[in-house]
Amino acid sequence: MATITAADVNKLRTITGAGMMDCKKALVESDGDFDLAIENLRKKGQKVAANRSDRESTEGAAIAIVSADKTSGVAITLNCETDFVGKNEGFVKLATELANQALNYATKEEFLASDFNGITVAEKLIEQTGVIGEKIEVASFARLNGAFIGSYIHAGNKIATLVALSATVEGAEEASRNVAMQAAAMNPIALNEAGVDASIIEKEIEIAKDQLRQEGKPEAMLDNIAKGKIQRFYKDNTLVNQDYIKDGSMSVAAYVKSVDGGLTVTGFSRVALG
After folding, report:
1. CA pair distance 146, 72, nearest whole angstrom
2. Which is nearest to 144 in space by CA: 171, 176, 116?
């Protein structure tokens, strides 16, 4: 039987992130074979993952990363079960490492299948489920491309947002961050009127008409009044039409134009825990 030293245990712990006793047990069971010990620890992770597959994972860390040239960005949430784990420095570090890797992929599926230190991202999540003892998953994945991408991560890593601007201009960095902060705080459903699904508008019109009927308004007036309420709906719920949170006297679109007359917001993405 191989002699298992403290250095061996620490080496396996560094490789896998598993607990010290789990690493020692795995090395004993594998008779000092590191590859077999790693495989056994991953199998344990799969077993834990299967046992916890029906658990809710609504805590974790939301991370947004922007490429060096500012033309693409990705936002993900690495979810777990408890706030205690979600706030752990090592967990947030892993979420950030994964987000940096996600920046290289167009879809969540490609990202999960990509290599992460010798195993796939999907396998790493299973491994970490075994290490931590909680369900770990990438619940949200959003990619955004544009002429200039900015980002914002809300305090506590609960919300992460990306914003695309139409051009790289002086002040674009600050403007994109401010608009990304707006998207985090105000949770718009779309960029502008064109981005709102027609079914949502139809539903809002019917709700408005029902309210007006209850107020005793004549049927002939309902369409015009309802249209006014829909304009208010757009103002409250679409990013570029919302009142700018740092200066309520102007819309987000007007704020961006104040930075540069030709500048517009061309897109945004928002991911959040819960």
Report:
1. 6
2. 176
Task: Tell me the whole-structure pTM to 2 decimals.
Answer: 0.78
Q: Which of 247, 141, 242 is nearest to 193 (CA)?
A: 242
**Burial (Cβ within 10 Å: 0-12, 13-18, ≥19) of residue 84:** exposed
Average pLDDT of the residues in 234-259: 97
- What DSSP letter does each residue of 194-263 carry, written as one string? GGS-HHHHHHHHHHHHHHHHHTT--GGGHHHHHHHHHHHHHHHHBGGGSEETTEEEEEHHHHHHHH-TT-
Burial 153-183 (b: 16+ CB within 10 A, else e): bbeebbbbbbbbbbeebeebeebbebbbbbb
| DSSP one-letter code for 193 | G
What DSSP designation does 158 have?
Answer: S
Q: What is the pLDDT of residues 52-62, one digit of tens each?
A: 666 777 899 99
Query: Please, which residues have CB within 8 angstroms of residue 122's CB and are 6 or more apart in sequence?
Result: 112, 113
Do 94 and 79 form a contact (C-beta atoms < 8 A)? no
- Nearest CA among 247, 71, 260 for reference residue 171: 260
